[in-house]
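Board notes (copied after class):
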Amino acid sequence: MRAPIGTFDNARPAPDCLDELTTPVADAVRHWRGTVPTEQFLYVDTDPAIADTAVFVEHYGASLLDQSANCVVVASKRGGESSLAACVVLSRTRVDVNGVVRRQLGARKASFAPMDLATGETGMEYGGITPVGLPDDWPLLVDAAVVDTPYVLIGSGRRRGKLIVPGKAFAELPGAVVVDGLGVEQPS
């Protein structure tokens, strides 16, 4: 099957590719309860050597810059307590950690979580962290622009492979809160 975005020749329904996904992502696909059928979650095999956004879109289609998203793990502190959350924004933007994220989480301080903490707590590989399969008790902040995008390319939990998910499904993930202005345009 041809993917609805990018130049991927072999897109397969994610439920048929559970062995290609990390355990938390495969479990999330297996137990999905949203209104978007999981057969619309597609898996595409990609080369992990070109997983970074700039090289990736050059290889798989420049239009993907407007149709792909990044998921980042954020550590926040409030009243001596630390907690983790995740944020999803389109790849052409950056997460407003010190403004929108900090206020949304009611935190005194927020910053990107260290790589070893992010990968250890998610069970996913660095460069492949996805909102599909995150711990259910984490807040998941999703930029409204992601939800408004017909199909979004996102990590699969591994550096190899990506998921293509209908944008509206992101609003149905556990802990999801749709936030306007979470992603801010990157300077040119």
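Comment from the instructor: The mean pLDDT is 93. Residues 25 and 133 are 4 Å apart (CA to CA).
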